[in-house]
Amino acid sequence: MDWKKPTGILLCLFSLQAFVFAQDKAPVNFGKIAVSDFDLSKYAFDTGTAAVIIADIGNTSFEGNSKGDFTLIFKRQKRVKILNNTNEFDAAKVEIMVYEDGPNNVEELTNLKASTYNLENGNVVETKLDAKGIFTDKVDKYHSLKKFTFPAVKPGSIIEMQYTIKSDFYMHLREWSFQGEYPCLWSEYQTHIPLFFNYVVVSHGEQQYDIHTSKSNAAFYSVRLPRGTEQDDVVNLNSSIRDDRWVRKNVPALKEEKYTSSLANYLSRIEFQLHFIQFGETAERHDYMGNWQIASEKLLKDENFGAALDKDNRWMDADLKSIIGDSKNTGEKIARVYAYVRDHFTCTSHDNIYVDNPLKTVFKNKNGNVAEINLLLIAMLRHENISADPVILSTRDNGLTDEIYPLINQFNYVICVTKDENKAYYLDASLPRLGFGTLPTTCYNGSARIINKEQPYLIHLDTDSLNEPKVTSVVIINDEKNQWSGNYQSILGKVASYDLRYEINKKGEQEYFKELQTSFNTELDLENPGIDSLSKLEEPVRIHYDFNLKSGDAADMIYFNPMLTETYPENPFKAAERKYPVEMPYKIDETYVLNMEIPNGYQVEEMPKSARVMFNEKEGMFEYLIQKDATSIQLRSRIKLNKTVFEPDDYNSLRDFYGYIVKKQSEQIVFKKK
Amino acid sequence: MKPMRNFAIFLILFGSLSLRAQQYNVHLIPDSLKKNARMVKRYDETTVEIKSPGKATLHTHHVYSILDESAKRFGAYSSDYNKFISINSISCVLYDESGKEIKHVKKKDMQDISGSDEETLMTDTRYKQNDFYHNNYPYSVEYEEEDDLNGILFFPSWDPIDAAGVAVEYSKYVLIAPSDYEVRYKAFNFDSPPDIKEQSGKKIYTWEIRNLRARTHEILSPEWSELVPHVMMAPSDFEAQGYKGNMSSWESYGRFIEELMKGRDVLPEEVKKKVHQITDRLNTPEEKVLALYDYLQKNTRYISIQLGLGGLQPFPATEVAVKRYGDCKALSNFMVALLKEAGIKGNSVIIRSGEGASPVEKGFPCDQFDHVISCVPMEKDTIWMECTNQSIPPGYLGGFTEDRYALLVDENGGKLVRTPKYGLNENLQIRKTLASVNEEGNLDANRFTRYKALQQDEIEGLVNGLSKTRLMEHLKSEIDLPTYDVVKFDYKQDRNRIPTIEEVLQLNATSYAQVSGKRLFINPNITSREQVKLKTNEERKYDVQLTDEYRDIDTTEIRIPPGYQPEAVPKDLNIENKFGKYSSSTKVLPDKIIYYRLHEQYCGRFPPSAYPDLVKFFEQMYKADHSMVVLIKQQ
Lengths: 674, 635
Fold this sequence. Notes:
The structure holds two protein chains of two kinds. By secondary structure, chain A is α+β, with helices and mostly antiparallel strands. Chain A is built from eight helices and 35 strands. In chain A, the strands form eight sheets. In chain A, strands 5-4-8-2-1-10-13-12 form an eight-stranded mixed β-sheet, with no helix packed on it. In chain A, strands 25-26-24-23-29-33-32-31 form an eight-stranded mixed β-sheet, with helices on one face. In chain A, helix 4 (330-344) runs antiparallel to helix 6 (370-383). Chain A is globular. The N and C termini of chain A lie far apart (89 Å). Chain B is α+β, with helices and mostly antiparallel strands. Chain B has eleven helices and 38 strands. Helices cover 20% and strands 40% of the residues of chain B. The chains are: A alpha+beta, B alpha+beta. The interface between A and B is large, with 67 and 60 residues.
């Protein structure tokens, strides 16, 4: 059997080794609950949970059907103990998604049984789910949810369910998550796959299986070929099958943390990708996955992807003529087309690599999903004989992709790559106010794949490549009235500039500065506020204003924080522990420069000491350099991190590093009256 | 003659089309209406025709000009349908700035969305939705919808200015009813009576308004509905799914609700037995009520399922007894059934829920509610019970349903009652902090806090809604200190009718005090700082309405390292005004700082001119709460 050994980070090989542990069978006997089953004291799990999954067992096998094909049989059994009502018995609410593709192609949910077991006066009392309590909620054209909640649930209840889903969609062999919202004592998945179906198994997150066995067996399949009015033909197939079994015991609950791009990257689960189907060694092989070359060609021919680009595009002649105008230079043409699409179209979903509508419709409607908008951009550029190709990727919140296998369903975003005589540009026209040649941070998720005829190749989009410099400078002088007056200006990085443009567009400059005024800790009057380059999208935004400081009228002592508002008032890493790496969207580089006159009539009694600390030697740096002369004080503070991903082992140092910054930046200068 | 006639028709058609296009040209909006406006209702019409107490039609038609992105949501459309409302047609049209039609969407092409969500396990209400996703501002949208109402339980009210930044060019509401049908309406901030016409056995009531300017939102202002013209409408006789009723009085409306509940209070034998097991040995009715409520809380849970008349009619008590779940109606009905078995008369009470929910208009009986609780009127007072919450103390309502009118239902019909209010003397936060700061500025603190009534609501939710581990995680990230850790915590709940929670918290905060050379800067107010700063508005049009009433008292002792002398100590501050009371005092002794703080906040309504004083009040508190003691090390 051809289970290829992949080298990608998330792939694992079907191992023939069988790890046999002392306990090889799930600790449950489904449908039979004894009084002793309510006692979980021999198990160790996070007591902070509202429920614990005692066993969750899934099983997928194949069955010949009467449509001349095969049906996937997915069976599931699950037993959960409810410990308390802290999250309103959420574990007792069940939703099962079933898929359909037209009225005759529906997944069938059968054999759904669910019961709640309570201990009452030392006896186990069963309350069965009433079939009337099962609801069907149509989500969209393709998906329905079967929903129910267990009856008679209270703290201490055991709930148990089983169901079967029959599915003809063997492209989508159900995946299995070993990990979820609740700790799980026993999570198991079995597959029984005839060898003529070849799937690649992709593992995510932690993969320490307590049991993993893989055996070859023989099986017999009977497939009925419908013949209309004549008698059906029956084909009987003897096949070798592969029986696999994965078990993880005592799996902790998944935990959400700040600064994580996607929890899905850490979730322990396995998924299955149909590689090929081949009935016998000499039979024709139907490849479903192929390699990137094949996948790319397929995508380019796909009606909902590349084929949309090759349609007759003469309908855009006139519009493009007016968009391009008299521009001759390729770079300028690209910029104009990009700006046109970005400024005139609304993106309805940033989570799709396929178009739902022809590009002509998209153009007419002036809206579409991210694939529609960026493929339209590509089509328009190609119309002008400018080379442009789609690039597919998975956004940060969507999780990492496999770099070896073309697992297209892992991708959820399309951008455009184009070039003029000198340079290649990566463009995303789906976001208003995004500068030319800039991608949103969500695209920086490791890698992306250029889809073209020649060679679909991998490009790297690393958060480590994103610098986000912010430079703030403040000047404070003694004015004519012997008051402190100052000037503030701050030049933001690309990401912060984009965010600010978004914010200003939403609430207006006036409101922005009004809110800024109330955010100051010190009493500070703001004058002549302004923001530069709000509409020059390719340039960084500059915020500036003048201010008057009310400095404790002729007090004997003046205490003054030279950082003004540019401090970290609190540690961004508040949690004391960390389970997963910290993933920042870009490299931080913040500089603050202050030049101030010592207030008239005062002298410096005390001021903070200069300091410089390094984070993990060269990975980061914080400096706070302050000096004075007879009439003035200069301060330069800079925080710079040279990378974006910090392993949990480094978390404490990172927290301490920021703790030190918070502390240092809160220090004050003391002025004393002469 | 023939061609001529065609030409005439063509002219008329063409004429009306071009007139339309012109009508929706954004540039035709008078400047006066554009002031402060983000959306202008160019045309807004609602027509309700009551055919009989059980049947009506609803026709809505509006054209909105969306002036900028902040009004984006008004360009979209969402309409629900279920067993009571069926949508016959919807048409959605998008116009550009000049009024030229760009796009037309029909009902069949609209999105169809399930009404179920996180809160609701299942409902038969679904939504038709449309969004043009147009981003070239300004533009206009036109939506027209025809519905059949199968049962008339409520009518939309006429609410031309339903949000800040909305101006109205023209709005009208037409109510058509059989001449002998009593039409009910009540106008607010709107003096002109409707125009009433009678023709062929029908009475037609029309309200109209033109050229209303946009209003701006002001913080701490009264209810929006108090400020703008609107007319409430409601049926008199009505019918729904075979049930008949009359809404003209609270009494008759209550009778209808009672009718829906009739016969649904039967308990299975084993539950009846259980009731007697629990209550027979108890002496007073109050003990019995509390014991049964405890049984309810321990044995049922809240699950929302809204099917058919289920929006109004509870599941029978038998069903709740078996499934041990239900929505608010079902659980309240079950509670009342338990009480009945114990020989105690309880009632379901229909209420509008939510903290700060706008008050029920008590002078206009109609369906203004969204929740059900239950109560037992006793000789001296009433025991109130929120039946959907398994942890709330018995007899306590909390911010969700306190201090408002609600409809108590019994066999004589309904009557308005008022739920209890928790005031200044109930809503307490009494805190004592014993702390020490060392030379590095690190703080160790033991904080004891007693939260009472509304001030304990949030904490009660956390203590009962989170496991210990999650609660610890929460405490470790939610306190407003720069870098800190919680060492230990403990909660003790006093589940009285006015409940209190006692909290003990041990924490340490690194660099709490700032060290600059030989000086230590210590804020004696460790965790009770006022965080609100009000914006200074240039212009205040509406009254100031303060709705929160509470009292916070803090006493803090901070031990300081030896060898320090005070250099600066915040001045004591005592303020007493119509908004509240604030005082703070700080004393520095050789080995410790003693700090006292009191903040009383009153509720009340004040003229617009009072706003600057309120801003100042909050500013003073903010400043005082952020003041530092400066200690200097003696050489």
